[in-house]
Structures
1.
Amino acid sequence: MVSRLSVVGISIILFAVVFPLYVAQGEEALIEGLHIEQGKGTFVVSFSVKNCFSTKMEEAIKAGVPTTFNFFIRLYKRRPVIWDKKIASYKIRHRITFDNLKEDFRIWLQEKEKEIRVADLEEAKRSMQQVEGFSMVRGRELERGDYELAIKAELDPVKLPLRLECILFFVSLWDFETDWCYRTVRVEP
């Protein structure tokens, strides 16, 4: 009788601990709307990230915590016999901060090298999760063949001072990371 009671008790405790963590995660972030335009020696890439903001993250941003998204973009030349050749690799950052005095959001878009200011959180979220018109491999002639474009997005890890991460372990629940999104592109001369 004691063993059955202890198994039920442990099951209830485990459920009470694991279920809230599962619910807090929400939907998985993913890359969507990938659009590639080919020009002479360039690829122009546009895409967005879906499900990358949680309510806790939004509250933290409104409280003034700077938040950075990292976008990784890689281009490989596909080769049938040996491993693929890396042609280009980029890391793009989008950073958002809330200005409490002016009551607006400041967003730094690295690929455009400019800062924008918006008053609405929804507009700020759209700007943070979109990369539009990013030019790759400028000034290089690409050989004829198949190329593979790989894209990934992640939240820059929040670093807490003085070992606070042990106490404030829930901050890791903000983290998101997408899977790699692959697209094959054919280049014809």
Note: The radius of gyration is 21 Å.
2.
Amino acid sequence: MHLSTIGKKIRKTGRAYHSYMYKFGFYLGLIIVTMGATFEELPVWQKANDLCRRVFELSENSSLKKDFGLKDQILRSAGSITDNIAEGYERDGRRELIQFLSVAKGSAGELRSQLYRARDRGHFTQEEFDELYRDVVSISKMLAGFIHYVKQSEYTGTKFRPLTFHLKPEI
């Protein structure tokens, strides 16, 4: 389905529409930003949240547990990815969404760098490093695709729509 068709379908239904697109040679499972959808429904947020959980579990079950500085940096970077996706989405503005997605992408790059340090210090095996690294790269690509999509879309955010209220009379 072409993106302009998806946009028309969204405007007609007012609900989130799942778009599975191939951009830049990788899979993107995006939920197009519309009223009614939540950040928890975004596949990129779900994947980042899963990564955050796995990074925490690994940090608690490895020698990284005693490297307080690096452990703190790694956990903050992993959490920053999900937090910035959520915050940008909840801000309800196109430019803010792009800005926060860009910050989340930067946090993914920061996490990749920290994973190298953890591996080099012997906190992670090569297999653990490879799995986490592969997932962070995948999230970065999903974020890049999401940013590209939002920049190309007509989405302006809900804060720029006129507000209408439907008040029920009190009885």
Note: The chain is about 60% helix and 5% strand.
